[in-house]
Amino acid sequence: MSNLTIERKKEIFKTFGGKETNTGSTEAQVAMLTERINHISGHLKTNKHDVNSQRGLMIMVGRRKRLLAYLAKTNLTGYRKLIETLGLRK
Prior knowledge:
Low-confidence stretches: none
Order of helices and strands: HHHH
CATH topology: Helix Hairpins
Mean pLDDT: 92
Largest sheet: none
Number of domains: 1
Helix content: over 70%
Radius of gyration: 14 Å
CATH architecture: Orthogonal Bundle
Shape: globular
Strand content: under 5%
Structural class: mainly alpha
């Protein structure tokens, strides 16, 4: 369970989905997954042997990867803007 507050989730959905209730947009889902991935990555730096969190992290990374592939296929300019905003590619 992530420690994202309701206010933080609404902020993410408003920024990437257009409004707070647009939780289904691909951009909003990718942004939410990125937030959770960053949180769990920080947790794993101090708890190296937490295998369940490692597995959850890998599942989330895979889901984000599939969503990004879908977004790149359907909306290339939106994909490029999103990865630039989230800082996913180096």
